[in-house]
Amino acid sequence: MADEPAQVAWPTAPVPSVPGDVWHWQLEAMHVVSRVRSDLRARIAHPSVASASTEDARDGLLLVFEELASNALRHGGGDVRALVVAGPEGWLLDLSDEAPDRPPVPAIDRDPALGGMGLHLVTQLSSSVGWEKRPGRKHVWARLPSGRAEAPEQAQQRDRLPEPRSGEFRRE
Question: Which GO terms describe its molecular function (predicted)?
């Protein structure tokens, strides 16, 4: 119908291959999400992970995990699996469920007080997001930065000499 708002789905893209430590969990029901989140919190608090990431980045990872996990259970269902890869530059989250024909669709024109804004939050905290359909499964993924790695343009700015304040510049 012409009067209905268009649905804006997440980009279709294969789950990236990222090197790193792989952690995975089975999510049978909503109450398991908080237990798994606690386990994930403990893993990212380990000094080897914590020293390579910022507290804000770790908090963002936990928030994105909770959003994607609850969406997989609410809107996907079936056998829900969570996978986190802790790589050198950040994390990859991959939540899969048994609803390959139901893509993630961020809420549009909804009062934030009514909820359903989780996917928007995920995109704001992530460096990239996507989803892919595999036989019998849907994989919704997000990549999150560690907070420590410099973006190439920041490194380039840091290495450049500052411009003189006035138009007059003399070398001696």
Answer: protein serine/threonine kinase activity
Its domain, for residue 77, covers: 21-145
Q: How many H-runs (helices) and E-runs (strands) does the chain carry?
A: 5, 5
Token pair for 138: 């849907």
Question: pLDDT-based confidence at 165, cuts 50/70/90?
Answer: very low
Provide φ and ψ at 141, rounded to 5°: -130, 160
The rounded distance, in Å, linking the Cα atoms of 122 and 68 is 8
Count structural domains, the chain.
Answer: 1
- pTM for this one? 0.79
What residues are paired with 142 via a beta bridge? Answer: 93, 129
- Residue-wise pLDDT for 114-151, tens only, equals 556 788 889 999 999 999 999 999 999 999 999 985 54
Residue 168 maps to a domain: no
- Residue type at position 6: A
Q: Is the CB of residue 101 less than 8 Å from the CB of residue 76?
A: no
Q: Which of 83, 69, 70, 73 is nearest to 22 (CA)?
A: 83
Q: What is the CATH number of the domain that holds 53?
A: 3.30.565.10
Distances (CA, A) of 83 to 51, 60, 100, 112, 151: 22, 16, 17, 28, 25
pLDDT tens-place string over residues 41-58: 999 999 988 899 999 999
Backbone angles phi, psi at 49, to 5 degrees: -90, -45
